[in-house]
Amino acid sequence: MPMNTKLILGCVAICLSALDGVSSALGQTGVVAVVVSEKNTANNLSIPELRKLFGGETHSWPGGQSVKLIVRAPGAHERVVLLKLLGMSESEYKRYWVAQVFRGEAQFEPVALFSNAMQREALGIFPGALALVEVQDVRPGMKIVKIDGLLPGKAGYVFN
Amino acid sequence: MRHNRAALILLLVSGLSHAQDSVLSDRELIQQLAQQVKTLQERVDVLESRHQAEEVPDAGATHAPLGTAPPQAADGDGQSPSLMQSLHESHGIQWRGFGEADYKALDQRTPELGTYGFVPGSHGNFYTGDFDLLLTSRLSDKASVLSEIVFGEKDAQSFGVDLERLLFKYDFNDHLKFSVGRYHTGIGYYNTAFHSGSWLQTTADRPLIMEFADDGGVLPTQAVGLSITGTIPSGRLGLNYTAEYGSSDTIRPDLLTAKPEDENNGNHINVGLFARPDRFPGLQIGGSIYHDRISDFTLGPSVRISQTIINGHIVYVRHGIEFLNEGFLLRHAYEGSATYNMPAFYSQISKQVGHIRPFFRYQYINANQVGFLSDVALRHGPSFGARYDFNDFIALKAQFDHTIRKGQPDLNGLHLQLAFTF
After folding, report:
1. How many CA atoms lie within 13 A of B393 on its CB side?
2. How many domains are there within chain B?
3. Is B274 inside any structural domain?
4. B321-334 burial by CB neighbour count: b if 16+ within 10 A, else e?
5. Nearest-CA neighbor of A67 among A109, A115, A126, A108?
6. What is the pLDDT of residue B420?
7. What is the rounded distance in angstroms from the CA atom of residue B226 to the CA atom of residue B240?
8. Is the pTM of this model over 0.90?
9. Residue-level pLDDT at A3
C-alpha cells in the first residue's frame, strides 16, 4: 500500500474516531432529567403526573408541600422538552398560562430562568421545586426523579 | 525468541491500553470542552441580556418577557437577591388587563338589543367592548384573592363598571379548594374557561347560549356565594368536581325592547363533574346540573318557576386544536302549570396554523315561545372566521355570522375585533 494512501486512511480513521467522540458527547446533552429538591420525598412520577404538575393542574406534592415550577426561558433545550411534554407551542404555552391565571388556577406563569445554574439555585431555595435539567448539568442538591420507573439514559426513558 | 514474543505482546497490550486511555481522555476532554462552551454560551446570554437592559434604562423593568426572571450570573454561589425576589411568591397585587376595539356591521332591519357598545339598528359602528382588569394577590401559602373588574361600554359611549368576580380563595389541597364571593357560575365549560377576556376567546364573541345575562343571555352566568372545587382520587380517569351554592339574582334585558327583566332568583345549587383522562391529554368530558327558583314577571308578580339547567360538554384543546362542544337543557316548570324544555348547544372548532387560527362555530337555542324568554325564541346559525395573533399579546379577529330567527328576518353580521392583553 502506498505511503500516501496509508496516510489518508490514517487521517480518516482519526477523524471518524474524533467524530464518534463528539457525537457521543453531544448525544448526552439531549438527555433531560426531571429534578426536585433533595428534601422532596418524590422518587417516581408517571408522564400524566408530570404533565399535570407542569401544566399547573396539580398544586401540591403528596406530603402537602406546594409545587414550585421552575422552567427554562425560551430557546433552551429543556424548554423544548417541556413544550413537547405539554403538547403546546411557545405561544400556546403563554396563552395557556394567561388562562390559568385568569381562571384562578395559578397566581402567575412559572418564572422562566436563563440558565441551569439558576435552576440549581432555585431548587436549593424551594423544597417543593420541580425542574427539567439536562443530565450533564445535574449537580449535588438536585434529586433525579424516575419517570415511569426509569432513570435518564435507560432504554425507554421518555426524555432520552 | 520466547522472550521476544512476550516483549512484543506486552508492548502491544501496553500500546492498546495507552490508546484506550487516550480515547477515554479525549472523550472526557470533549465533554469538558462541551460543558465549558455551554457555560460560556449561558454567560454570553446573560451578558447580552444585561447589555440590552442597560441600553434602555427606562424600560429596564419591562424589558424581560413576562414571567421571565432577570438574568443572573450563571455560576454565582450565593443566592442572588433579585432571583430570590423573582421566585418568591409576591404578596403584592398582580394585575393583568384585557382590552378590545371592535367594528360590527349587521343587516338588522328592526333594532335588537345592542351590547358592548354596539348601536342597535345601525349598519355598523365602532365600539370598545369590555375593558377587563384582573387583580390577584396571594395572602398566604393557601389563601389568595382574585377580582375581575370590567369597564363595559353602554349606549352612547357611556361606560359602566361591573365587578365580574371577587373571590376569596383558600386551597386546602388539590382535592378541596374553597372560595367565597362573586363568581361566574360553573354551568358547563365556557363560562369558567373564558370569563370576560375577549383576548382569550378564539371567536370575537361568546356563543349565544353562553352570553352573559346582562347582555341578554338566558343563563344565570354570575352569582354570589360559596364554591368548592377539586380533584377526586380516580386514577387515570382524572375526575374533578365543582359545587356551588349562592344567589344569582339575574337581571337580563329583553332582546327586543331592552327592558330589564328581574328573574328574582332564589338561592341556587350547582354541581358539576368532569374527567380529564390521562390517556387523552387535552380532553375534558363532563356535565353539570344547576337548580334555582325564579319569577316570571311577564305573567304576573307571583308566578314562580322551578328552573333546572343540565349541561354536558366534550372539549379537546391540545396540539393547536380547539374543539368545544356543549349541550344544554333549560327546564322551566311553572308552579301548577306547564313545563317547558328548551334545548341549546354550540359546537366550535379551530386549528392554529402558524399565526392564523381559522374557526367555525354553529350555535342553536330554542327558547320558550311563551313567557320571559319569548324574545329569544328559536335562533341558530353558523359563524366562521379567523384569528390572527401578531404576537403573544395582540390578536385580530374577523368573524362572519348568519343567524336564523323564527318569525323574523335572518341576520348577517361582520365582526372585526382587535383584542389584546397587557
Report:
1. 6
2. 1
3. yes
4. ebbbbbbbebebbb
5. A126
6. 95
7. 17
8. no
9. 53
Residue B302 falls inside a structural domain: yes
Q: Which three cell numbers stand for residue B47?
A: 451578558
**Interatomic CA distance for residues A74 and B274, integer angstroms:** 33
List pLDDT tens digits, range B1-26.
445 554 444 444 444 444 444 444 66
| pLDDT beyond 50 at A23 | no
Contact call for B80 and A17, based on CB within 8 A: no
Range of the domain at B400: 166-421
Instruction: Find the DSSP H helices in B254-327.
Output: none
Distance from CA of A50 to the nearest CA of B (A): 11
**What is the number of other CB atoms lying within 10 angstroms of the CB of residue B111?**
13
Residue A16, pLDDT > 50, answer no
Locate B409 and state its grid cell.
Answer: 328576518
Phi-psi region of B2 (alpha: psi -120 to 50; beta: other; left: phi over 0): alpha
Q: How far apart are CA B401 and CA B386, in angstroms?
A: 12
Give yes or no for residue B75 having a pLDDT over 70: no
Q: What is the DSSP letter of B210?
A: G
Q: Is the confidence at residue B186, as pLDDT, over 60?
A: yes
Contact yes or no for A115 and B192 at CB 8 A? no
**Which grid coordinates belong to B222?**
354570575
Residue in the block written with cell 417516581: A44
Q: pLDDT of B361-411, one tens digit each? A: 999 999 988 777 888 889 999 999 999 999 989 999 999 999 999 888 888
Distance, in Å, from the CA atom of B396 to the CA atom of B399, rounded to the nearest integer, reads 10
- Selecting from A17, A73, A87 the residue whose C-beta is nearest the C-beta of B281 gives A87
Q: B182 with B223: CB under 8 angstroms?
A: yes
| Structure confidence by residue, pLDDT tens digits, B300-355 | 777 888 999 999 999 999 999 999 999 999 999 988 788 899 999 999 999 999 99
Q: Do B173 and A24 touch (CB under 8 A)?
A: no
Confirm if A9 and A110 have CB atoms less than 8 A apart.
Answer: no
CATH code at B295? 2.40.160.10
Residue B306 lies in a domain: yes
